[in-house]
TrEMBL record:
<dbReference type="Pfam" id="PF01872">
    <property type="entry name" value="RibD_C"/>
</dbReference>
<dbReference type="InterPro" id="IPR024072">
    <property type="entry name" value="DHFR-like_dom_sf"/>
</dbReference>
<feature type="domain" description="Bacterial bifunctional deaminase-reductase C-terminal">
    <location>
        <begin position="2"/>
        <end position="186"/>
    </location>
</feature>
<dbReference type="InterPro" id="IPR050765">
    <property type="entry name" value="Riboflavin_Biosynth_HTPR"/>
</dbReference>
<protein>
    <submittedName>
        <fullName>Dihydrofolate reductase family protein</fullName>
    </submittedName>
</protein>
<feature type="region of interest" description="Disordered">
    <location>
        <begin position="18"/>
        <end position="37"/>
    </location>
</feature>
<dbReference type="InterPro" id="IPR002734">
    <property type="entry name" value="RibDG_C"/>
</dbReference>
Length: 201
């Protein structure tokens, strides 16, 4: 069974929207696009590269797919991620796209939860969900996420889309590895571990 792994950059207050640039995602009037680079460091890049060592596919929502498909095919070939991003299999969940042109891309058919269950049952490596906040919410609601790989950066934005939005399913998490970079970013890997338990002091 292949693992579905949510890989996300977060602010300290949990915002995942538009880390990469001002024009990445201005939905709902978001004005803080590009918040990640000023608080990034080399150790974060090393950790992210490690996230792809055992992955051979990405699972993307429409918006993230379109951002990536517009960038990576013509990205700097000297960037070590360029070849990897272009060569990996891409599975795209969308209710509006009718075709996907980026190499090795496949448009999922039918109900997305059912399609991802079938995908997990195929042969292959891990499947990384990158960005794709709405898709991640759907996968969480259907108990389809096997692991979270998060970089939590030392900045507070105050508004924007959050990975764990209101209505998230209560879930206990088992920490797999947690470290802090020299720039103060927390790099955490967590696995769902049933429901939370409750107690009092």
């Amino acid at each position: 069974m292949r693992k579905v792994i949510v890989c996300t950059f977060l602010t300290l207050d949990g915002v995942m929207q538009a880390p990469g640039g001002p024009d990445e995602d201005a939905e709902s009037g978001f004005r803080h696009g590009g918040w990640q680079k000023p608080v990034d460091d080399d150790e974060v890049g090393t950790a992210i590269a490690g996230w792809y060592e055992h992955s051979d596919a990405m699972l993307l929502g429409r918006k993230t797919y379109e951002i990536f498909a517009a960038y990576w095919p013509t990205a700097d070939p000297g960037n070590p991620f360029t070849d990897r991003m272009n060569s990996m299999d891409k599975y795209v969940a969308s209710r509006t796209l009718t075709s996907v042109e980026w190499q090795n891309s496949t448009l999922l058919e039918g109900d997305v939860a059912d399609a991802v269950r079938r995908l997990k049952a195929t042969e292959g490596g891990d499947i990384n969900v990158v960005g794709s906040g709405d898709l991640a919410q759907t996968l969480m609601r259907h108990d389809l996420v096997d692991e979270y790989r998060l970089t939590i950066h030392p900045v507070i934005i105050g508004t924007g889309k959050r990975l764990f939005a209101d209505g998230a399913i209560p879930t206990a998490l088992e920490p797999v590895s947690v470290s802090t970079t020299k720039g103060g970013t927390v790099v955490g890997v967590y696995r769902p571990n049933g429901k939370p338990s409750y107690d009092s002091y």
